[in-house]
Amino acid sequence: MNSCVEKIEKKYGDLNGCVSVVDLNKGQTGLGLSLAGNKDRTRMSVFVCGMHPQGSAAKDGRVRVADEILEVRSLNVFHFLFSFPLSAESTLIVFISN
After folding, report:
1. What is the pLDDT of residue 74?
2. How many domains does the chain fold into?
3. Residue 79: domain span
4. CATH number for position 87
């Protein structure tokens, strides 16, 4: 088994749903993701709340509205998104709840 997959399964294996690794390249319209934080301020989480139909994520089809973004480029997404811009190529670890 791939060591990356093993690491992800170990880190997020207790989540009730599917965890996917999604590699996206920023196109002319960007990734096309609109993100929002959790309504419960005690939980530091980021969700996809909208998608631009011409963005890389919508064209790829693996990320959907309501998915939780866990990591971007191996960094905790909550701290990352508010500190650094997304690069031209981003690897997202996405939680898809059942």
Report:
1. 65
2. 1
3. 3-97
4. 2.30.42.10
